[in-house]
Amino acid sequence: MDRILVLDFGGQYDLLIARRVREHHVFAEIKPYGKISAEEVKRGGYRGIIFTGGPASVYAEGSPLCGADMLETGIPVLGICYGAQLIAHLSGGEVSPAEGSGEYGSAALSVGKSALFDGIPEKITCWMSHSDRITSLPPGYTVTASTGKCPAAAFENSEKKIYGVQFHPEVSHTEYGRYVIGNFVKKICGASGDWTMDGFTERSVRELREKLEGRNVMLALSGGVDSSVAAELLCRAVGDRLTCVFVDHGMLRKGESEAVVSVFGGRKDMNFIRVDAAERFLERLSGVTEPETKRRIIGEEFVRVFEETAKACGGSDVLAQGTIYPDVIESGRGNSAVIKSHHNVGGLPGEMLFREVCEPLRDLFKDEVRHVGELLGLPDSIVRRQPFPGPGLAVRITGRISGDKLNTVREADAIFREEVGKLPEEERPSQYFAVLTDTKSVGVKGDARAYGYTVALRAVDTDDFMTAGWSRLPYSLLETAAGRITGEIPQVTRVVYDISSKPPATVEWE
């Protein structure tokens, strides 16, 4: 199996880059920049190396650097953003602060002749995010693309097969970005493309069976696609030594608890337990307003519930979770920045009774998980289920949480999802939900003054959940949803629609 090494220099898109490589059926392995030497890379048999982006400046003290010998392995190299600047810096070029405040967002890219841009139009739109730029190329390198603000938006040493791009080809905002990565992986590196989800599924079941032989496993089952697919993999690997625990923390969507029980409660091949823990979660969250604190509290409380349940069931030393790539990225990894801690990653307590955490889907993105679910024969109702964060409605209420607020956002969310659900399936957004803000405003209800909450509606289109654009829903749909929410929920006087993309916003509000 051919492999591409993704060398992580602390950016947010290391795993997204890996995912783009895998779209071409080539396995991508991520290593922190200081954890592998050039000699180890050569011995590892990698077909190519990708230097990721990152928030640092290559000329700053303490910036993440690898040795110049990483460019002398004879293996093709592609540097992205900071990675491109690093190639220039290591090879004798010059990197300086960009004029003004840098270049962020969409930019018009003029493309020249290069194997990296084979089959790509001469003018495309790319995504920029940098405060530095390459002001002098190293000897032997030539410019292959430029923007109005960035003369060396792409450059290369074709003899050494070393390439740098200042823009981000891995994000969906860059036109033909997949072509750029595909050209590097397949044409320049010569990777064969034999890595598939079929192979992943077979390999995962086999490896889990060997790794967990004779051990009891407790899975945190939410009923979402990630934990459901993890449950199916583990069920095939360990059989009746798997216990699936569904914790109802009181912050689920309307009808969610009943739906999960109806799908999993009747399965004879799976040990299923439902735990009603709504009161204890709400008590722990009383008075808490800071988003990261909410997530940490929920993560810790989840584990405590699982520990108590494991003891009651005779003991399990392995805690399994449906953690996937975006969870890991946004919770921070190595030198990567933390965007928000996920309850099943950054929210886990430091000390647990479980000896090991098992995460069979940790290397997959959402669409890949769905594909695995299809291969395992899970029903569409699970495989195509709307994404829902583990902390639930707790992170869809800004500010303090209470039972009344949970009921309010639960009803608003149900109304919005019902209205969007009337659209043809192909026209529905990737994710859509309601948020209860901590903002109150004056309204009029029944010819009398009312003072109530503002609900924000959120809908996004995405294929990877690492980047997302806001959905252009029909005005008539928004009007109907807003009218119903303000009319049917006494506590709400105003509805707004969120038109923020990711980045700079995240999909969830907290």
Write the layout of secondary structure elements.
Elements: E1 3-8, H1 14-22, E2 27-32, H2 38-44, E3 48-51, E4 77-80, H3 82-90, E5 94-97, E6 103-111, E7 123-130, E8 132-136, E9 142-146, E10 154-157, E11 162-165, H4 177-188, H5 197-211, E12 217-220, H6 225-238, E13 242-248, H7 256-264, E14 271-276, H8 278-284, H9 291-312, E15 318-320, H10 325-330, E16 356-358, H11 366-375, H12 380-383, H13 403-420, E17 431-445, E18 448-461, E19 469-470, H14 475-488, E20 492-497
Parallel strand pairs: 1-2, 1-3, 3-4, 4-11, 12-13, 12-15, 13-14, 15-16, 18-20
Antiparallel strand pairs: 5-8, 6-7, 6-9, 9-10, 10-11, 17-18, 18-19
Helix pairs in contact: 5-6, 5-11, 6-11, 13-14
Task: Explain what the structure shows.
This protein has 14 helices and 20 strands. The strands form 4 sheets. Strands 2-1-3-4-11-10-9-6-7 form a 9-stranded mixed β-sheet, sandwiched between helices. Strands 14-13-12-15-16 form a 5-stranded parallel β-sheet, sandwiched between helices. Strands 17, 18, 19 and 20 form a 4-stranded mixed β-sheet that branches. The longest helix has 22 residues, at 291-312. Mean pLDDT is 89; it is low at 334-347. It folds into 3 domains: 3-188, 3-Layer(aba) Sandwich (Rossmann fold); 197-383, Rossmann fold; 397-497, GMP Synthetase, Chain A, domain 3. It has helices spanning 14-22, 38-44, 82-90, 177-188, 197-211, 225-238, 256-264, 278-284, 291-312, 325-330, 366-375, 380-383, 403-420, 475-488; strands at residues 3-8, 27-32, 48-51, 77-80, 94-97, 103-111, 123-130, 132-136, 142-146, 154-157, 162-165, 217-220, 242-248, 271-276, 318-320, 356-358, 431-445, 448-461, 469-470, 492-497. With 510 residues, it is α/β, with parallel strands linked by helices. α5 packs across α6 (225-238), α5 (197-211) crosses α11 (366-375) and α13 packs antiparallel against α14 (475-488).
